[in-house]
Design goal:
There is one protein chain. The protein is α/β, with parallel strands linked by helices. It has 2 domains: 2-26 and 275-384, no CATH class; 32-265, Spore Coat Polysaccharide Biosynthesis Protein SpsA, Chain A (Alpha-Beta Complex). It has helices spanning 2-26, 42-46, 64-72, 92-102, 120-131, 150-160, 177-194, 218-223, 236-246, 268-274, 279-282, 287-310, 313-334, 347-368, 380-384; strands at 32-33, 51-57, 79-86, 106-111, 136-141, 145-146, 165-168, 171-172, 214-217, 251-255, 260-262, 370-373, 376-379. The strands form 3 sheets. The chain has an 8-stranded mixed sheet with strand order 1-10-7-9-5-2-3-4, with helices on both faces. The chain has a 3-stranded mixed sheet with strand order 6-11-8. A two-stranded antiparallel ribbon has the order 12-13. Helix 4 links the parallel strand 3 and strand 4 (106-111). Helix 1 packs parallel to helix 13 (313-334) and helix 12 (287-310) crosses helix 13. It starts with a helix and ends with a helix. The relative contact order is 0.15.
């Protein structure tokens, strides 16, 4: 009986991973690889609409100067950068003001108080968009480092293909094996849940968004309700993509590779603490959905590795096959990143890290009665509204 159940689980697991791999392979033509977009000639450059790069910064003194200088160095003919200093109590605002004095294309807004009914980041992006003058807006983060041509390539492709939203998965720099493994595992589950390549299919309900690179037409952004429609949403980046898709915008998942990169967190501990803010939002504040997700992650991504080395007979070889498929698929997801492609061999440890992070975040959210994000506490009843 038990062996039959384990065989059945293995068969279902193998079919699930094969279906995932097939779907990803068939959807590759929908993914935009920005390095492959040719640079335009002088006439095409001259006709490009004005672009506004908008980001919020709260206590980003460590990284903001380097990031902003790469934004100002973008190879784009009509560019402005709108930086919103969101109640920083470090040198962030002073650093931005200093850079702005030497480059008039940088405009700095200083938010002194957070209005009721807003998350800080969401309000900062909304405020920046209100003063931005571009027909195109690139929402990004205060620590993203850009290669000069990456945004130009995205805009050219967007205009030539009549797309409203280009969501770019920035490359993530990570120091230390634990953090690298955590990010790699997170990437696998993100792809498995959202299937971001399908966002490029107008007949699919799939959507995508990334905080480091959400390039959108202003009219599409306004049609989607702007960030005002996401005022208390901890998943504003992904759900901006959802709002755009639901209001008729065409979007595409882009891969900039190392042309847009960010150090997401400085350490594994920072990543675990950082995801306290949006874990429960990702399961619509439901313990049931969280528990189901945790069980699925363990059974689909960790158990086959254990079974492949601890069991015997047909069950063992079935799980060996599952492990091979998972490792190949996971390595394929990592190939456009700076993360080592051998990390999938350690996937069971990565699963335990992600599961622990999810359970910890859920318990803390309900124990505290809300989430704390960048020094501000947001009550659970307001987040659920």
């Amino acid at each position: 009986m038990i062996e039959t159940a384990v065989l059945g689980l293995g068969a279902v697991t193998l079919l699930a991973w094969l279906a995932f791999g097939l779907d990803a392979a068939l959807g590759q033509h929908l993914v935009l690889y920005l390095r492959r977009v040719p640079l335009p000639g002088a006439d095409a450059r001259a006709a490009l609409p004005r672009l506004s790069v908008v980001f919020g910064a709260r206590n980003e003194a460590r990284a903001v100067a380097v990031a902003v200088r790469t934004m100002l160095a973008l190879d784009y003919p009509d560019l402005e950068v709108v930086a919103v200093d969101d109640r920083s109590d470090d040198e962030t605002g002073a650093i931005l003001d200093t850079i702005a004095r030497s480059d008039s294309r940088l405009r700095v807004l200083h938010v002194k108080a957070l209005p009721e009914g807003w998350l800080g980041k969401n309000h900062a992006l909304w405020a920046g968009a209100q003063v931005a003058s571009g027909r195109l807006i690139l929402f990004t983060d205060a620590d993203v480092v850009f290669e000069p041509t990456v945004v130009l390539r995205a805009v050219i492709w967007m205009l030539e293909n009549d797309v409203d939203h280009v969501a770019g998965a920035t490359d993530v720099e990570a120091r230390g094996l634990g953090l690298q493994l955590f990010i790699a595992t997170f990437a696998l589950f993100f792809n498995g849940y959202f299937r971001p390549w399908r966002a490029g299919d107008p007949n699919s309900k799939a959507y995508v968004g990334f905080g480091g690179f959400n390039l959108v037409r202003r009219d599409a952004y306004e049609r989607a309700g702007t960030h005002a429609a996401l005022a208390m949403d901890p998943l504003d980046d992904v759900n901006l993509g959802k709002a755009l898709k639901e209001t008729g915008s065409r979007q595409v998942c882009a891969v900039p590779g190392s042309m847009a990169r960010v150090e997401w967190y400085e350490s594994l501990g920072g990543a675990i603490r950082g995801l306290e803010k949006n874990t429960m939002a990702g399961v619509n504040w439901s313990f049931g959905l969280l528990f189901g997700g945790v069980v699925a992650q363990i059974l689909l991504a960790a158990w086959p590795f254990v079974a492949a080395v601890t069991l015997a007979g047909p069950v063992r070889w079935l799980n060996v096959a599952i492990v091979l498929v998972v490792v190949i698929l996971h390595a394929a997801i990592l190939r456009e990143t700076s993360l080592p492609t051998w990390l999938p061999l350690l996937l069971p440890i990565g699963v335990l890290l992600v599961v622990w992070t999810s359970v910890r975040a859920a318990l803390l959210t309900y124990w505290r009665g809300g989430i704390e994000w960048r020094g501000t506490f947001y009550p659970l009843d307001r987040l659920r509204d």
